[in-house]
Fold this sequence. Notes:
Elements: H1 2-7, E1 19-23, E2 26-29, E3 34-37, H2 40-43, H3 52-64, H4 75-88, E4 92-96, H5 99-118, E5 124-128, H6 137-141, H7 146-149, E6 159-162, H8 167-173, E7 178-183, E8 186-187, E9 193-194, H9 197-210, E10 213-217, E11 241-244, E12 255-259, H10 261-265, H11 281-296, H12 299-320, E13 324-330, E14 333-338, H13 343-352, E15 355-356, E16 358-360, E17 364-367, H14 375-388
Parallel strand pairs: 3-15, 5-6, 5-7, 7-10, 10-11
Antiparallel strand pairs: 1-2, 2-3, 4-12, 8-9, 11-12, 13-14, 14-17, 16-17
The structure holds pyridoxal-5'-phosphate.
Amino acid sequence: MDRAENAVLHTYNRFPVVLERGEGVRLYDLDGKEYLDFGAGIAVFALGYGNKAYNQALKDQVDKLIHTSNLFYNMPMTEAAEKLLKASGLSKVFFTNSGTEAIEGAIKAARKYAWLRDGSTDHEIIAMKHSFHGRSLGALSVTGNAHYQEPFKPLIGGIRFADFNDLDSVKEQITEKTCAIILEPVQGEGGIYPASREFLQGLRSLCDEKDILLILDEIQCGMGRTGSMFAYQDYEVEPDIMTTAKALGCGVPVGAFVLNEKTAQNSLVPGDHGTTYGGNPLACRAVSKVFDLFEEEKILEHVQKIAPYLEKKLDELVEKYDFLTERRGKGLMQGVVVSGRPVGEIINKAIENGLFVLSAGTDVLRFVPPLIITEADIDEMAEKLERSF
Ligand SMILES: *Cc1c(COP(=O)(O)O)cnc(C)c1O
């Protein structure tokens, strides 16, 4: 830990744990201590650690070819893109290396779409308060958190913020310059707030009416976490642009922005956008294998079956402890609001007791386990959490 602090820029207050290996829903530190993982590397490791078929696919690809650049075609990129389109119902994919880059691409595609339509270079985007879209300057500009933004101003211009789940508040921010509305169907970092049906469907109608692009950030809530492949599918709403990352590669750094046909035909063309690594065969082999394993292991069905049990267990805790005031969430993306006690202290105690849980916002315990958890894992989590209280 001292060596890391000496060498790595101190931008994280890390927990005093050095992780070495993982197996299923469990992680082990250098001393061999076991942790039940309800964080999944921040909603990344959906398939659990040490999945043999996934690991083998990556090993095979390492021996074949790791990188090509986008000057050439490669098969893993092609297959990963086809599977992502099939899963999302959308039309064209651009692969990135992270979530924040997927957001950057989505913003550029939206601005280009609007520019092609009216030639103006002064377009606006509406984002939500308490949103999180990433740390690069464009993504930070649409992140509704003053604390993250303040030291890095000026950010990109033309961003307006509205209240999540309040359609009137969005309408108030619309001008003739609005080119896109961006939001997470379930807000993650901001505190686990699912969008209401009326809100998301209302936004879709508003966007259709005014030729505004709807950008849905599925980086955290997508890839099966809420029980459908992408959270919007449960709302019967289709985005014009979707961003994905986190569980997309289950640990290999990869993201994507995905466009519907209308947006793909009227936005980015050669010369507009690029990346050296994006679409890299190693990362895309991971994506491709993740989609296969989701089908083979019936991950969506499992999430739909197991999530109500997690909800029930968390509801029981909220019922039992006065300082837990509310549970909210969707599928295996759950938050419990803590009142009058620092969330950080509970998390530290949980770590001592061999359990990883995350925080979200300032007062929410966040549960985003690998999607393969069982009822026994949930029971063990609740027991360890109670001991930590
Ligand atoms: C994590 C996250 C991002 C940023 O992804 P990075 O890979 O960390 O750049 C963007 N949007 C949402 C909703 C996220 O949860």
